[in-house]
Design brief:
Radius of gyration of chain A: 19 Å
Structural class of chain A: mainly alpha
Oligomer: heterodimer
Shape of chain A: globular
Helix content of chain B: over 70%
Number of helices of chain A: 7
Number of strands of chain B: 0
Number of helices of chain B: 10
Order of helices and strands of chain A: HHHHHHH
Number of strands of chain A: 0
Distance between the termini of chain A: 25 Å
Structural class of chain B: mainly alpha
Largest sheet of chain A: none
C-alpha cells in the first residue's frame, strides 16, 4: 500500500518520477500539436475554442485535487494515517495553481466570447471561492507553530470546506448561468465531437501526469523535512 | 438536575463576563453604525440609490462586525484555563461548543437585533421589509455564531495570523449572505428561501460541535 505508507511511497515515487515527467512532456507536445493544428475551429467561436484545451483540464484537476485531499483528510482523521496530513500539506499549492490557471484562462476566454473578463455567475464565483479556500489552507499551513495541531486543524478545515465541491460541480444545473452546462462528464453520451475530445483527453492526461510528478516531488520533500525535524 | 444546574451556572458566568465587558459589545454596535455612515458618505446621500442596496449593506456590516468579536469566543477562557475547568466539570468539548455558540448568540448577536431598526431608518428601508430582515437575521446570526465557533476554535493555537479566523468565517458565510439578502428582496417566495436558510442552519449546527470540539481538544492537549 504505497498510497498510505511514506517509506513505500518514497520507493515507488523514485521509480515513477522520471517516467511520469518524460511521459507528461511527450503528451504535452502531442496535445498542444493536436489542439493548435489538428483540431477544427468551432463554427461559432472560431479559434478561441482552443483555450478549452487548457481551461477544462485545469478545472477538472482543481476539483479532483480537492476531492483527493478530502479523502485523505478522512483517512488521516478517522483511521489515524499520518500520510494523509503529509499529502494535504504537499498538494494544496498544486491545486491552487490549477485553480488559478483555470480562472485566468477562463477570463481570457470570456473576454472575446461574453464581452467581459468576469461576471458574477454561480460557476465563476464558486471557483473563486475554491481558490480562496486553497489559499486559506496554504496560509494555515504557514501560520501554526505546533505541527500536530496544525495538520489536524487543516484536515478539519478541508473537510468543512468540501461543502463547496458539489456547489462547483452542480452550479451550472441549479442556477441559470452564463457558463455552459457540462458537456462531457454527464450521464448520457458526451455532446462534443471526437475531433475535439481527443486533444482534450490528451491534455487532461498530460496535466494529470505533471501534477502527479510535482506531487511526488513535494511529498518526498515533506517527508524528508518531517524526518529531519523529529530526529 | 445537577447537570441543568451546571448549565445555568455556566450561563450566569457568561452573563457576568459579558456585563463586565459590556463596552466591547457597545463598541461592536458603534462600529456597525460608523461603517453605515462611511458607506453613505462614499456612495452619496441619494435616497433612490441607497434604498435598493440598503439591505445588502446592513447584512455585510453585520457579518463584518460579528467577526470583530471572534477573539473573545474561546481565546480568553483558553488562556486563563477556564476551558479546562469547564471540561473537568463534566461537559464534553462538543457540548461546550454548543453552549458557547448559544451564549455568543445571546450576548453578542442579539443586541444587533435592536440596532437593526435604527439602521433601517437611516438607510430608508420600508417597515414591511424590516420584519423580513429581522426574521432572516434571527436565523442567520445563529449560523454566523456557529461559523464563528468553528473558526475561532481552529485558531486557538494560531499566534501569528489571527485574521485568518475572519477569512474562514467569511468564506463559509457566502451562502448565508446570498439567501438572507435574497429572502428580503424576493418577497413572493419568502417561505421557500427562509426554509433554505433553516436548512443551512441545521447543517452548520450539526457540524459545529464536532469540528470545534475536536479543535478545542487538540489545542488543550498540545498547549
Amino acid at each position: 500500500m504505497f498510497l498510505i505508507n511514506p517509506n513505500k511511497f518514497n520507493k515507488v515515487g523514485d521509480y515513477l518520477f522520471k517516467p511520469l515527467l518524460i511521459l507528461s512532456i511527450i503528451l504535452f507536445a502531442l496535445g498542444l500539436l493536436f489542439s493548435f493544428y489538428l483540431s477544427p475551429d468551432d463554427y461559432q467561436q472560431g479559434s478561441t475554442v482552443r483555450i478549452m484545451y487548457v481551461h477544462v483540464p485545469s478545472a477538472w484537476l482543481a476539483l479532483l485535487t480537492y476531492a483527493i485531499m478530502t479523502l485523505y483528510s478522512i483517512l488521516a482523521l478517522a483511521f489515524r494515517i499520518p500520510f494523509g496530513f503529509i499529502f494535504n500539506t504537499a498538494v494544496a499549492p498544486i491545486g491552487a495553481v490549477f485553480t488559478l490557471i483555470c480562472i485566468i484562462s477562463g477570463s481570457l476566454w470570456g473576454k472575446p466570447m461574453w464581452g467581459t473578463w468576469w461576471v458574477w455567475d454561480a460557476r465563476l464565483t464558486s471557483v473563486a471561492i475554491l481558490f480562496i479556500i486553497y489559499l486559506t489552507i496554504i496560509f494555515m499551513n504557514l501560520s501554526f507553530e505546533n505541527r500536530i495541531v496544525r495538520e489536524k486543524v487543516v484536515a478539519i478545515f478541508i473537510l468543512v470546506g468540501s461543502v463547496n465541491l458539489p456547489i462547483v460541480k452542480f452550479s451550472v444545473d441549479w442556477w441559470n448561468t452564463l457558463h455552459q452546462p457540462a458537456t462531457i462528464s454527464k450521464l448520457s453520451k458526451p455532446s462534443i465531437d471526437p475531433s475535439m475530445l481527443t486533444p482534450l483527453i490528451i491534455m487532461t492526461i498530460a496535466f494529470m501526469m505533471i501534477g502527479i510528478a510535482i506531487a511526488i516531488l513535494r511529498i518526498k520533500t515533506e517527508i524528508i523535512s518531517r524526518k529531519s525535524n523529529l530526529s | 438536575m445537577k447537570f441543568l444546574n451546571k448549565i445555568i451556572w455556566f450561563y450566569y458566568r457568561e452573563y457576568k463576563l459579558n456585563l463586565s465587558g459590556f463596552q466591547d459589545i457597545l463598541t461592536n454596535i458603534i462600529f456597525f453604525f460608523v461603517s453605515i455612515f462611511i458607506f453613505i458618505f462614499s456612495i452619496g446621500p441619494d435616497k433612490k440609490m441607497i434604498s435598493p442596496i440598503g439591505i445588502g449593506i446592513i447584512w455585510t456590516l453585520l457579518l463584518l462586525s460579528s467577526t470583530l468579536s471572534l477573539r473573545k469566543f474561546y481565546q480568553d477562557d483558553f488562556e486563563n484555563g477556564n476551558l479546562l475547568i469547564i471540561h473537568l466539570n463534566g461537559f464534553s468539548f462538543g457540548f461546550i461548543a454548543i453552549l458557547k455558540t448559544l451564549s455568543h448568540f445571546l450576548f453578542v448577536q442579539l443586541p444587533f437585533l435592536f440596532s437593526i431598526p435604527i439602521a433601517c431608518i437611516l438607510l430608508n428601508i420600508s417597515s414591511d421589509k424590516l420584519i423580513n430582515l429581522l426574521t432572516s437575521f434571527a436565523v442567520g446570526s445563529l449560523i454566523l455564531s456557529c461559523l464563528g465557533s468553528i473558526s475561532s476554535s481552529m485558531n486557538l493555537m494560531n499566534q501569528r495570523n489571527f485574521l485568518l479566523g475572519s477569512v474562514i468565517v467569511m468564506i463559509f458565510s457566502v451562502p448565508v449572505i446570498i439567501f438572507s439578502v435574497g429572502v428580503i428582496n424576493l418577497e413572493e417566495n419568502f417561505n421557500s428561501l427562509i426554509n433554505i436558510l433553516f436548512g443551512i442552519l441545521l447543517i452548520v449546527f450539526a457540524i459545529n460541535p464536532w469540528a470545534s470540539g475536536l479543535c478545542l481538544k487538540l489545542s488543550l492537549e498540545n498547549n
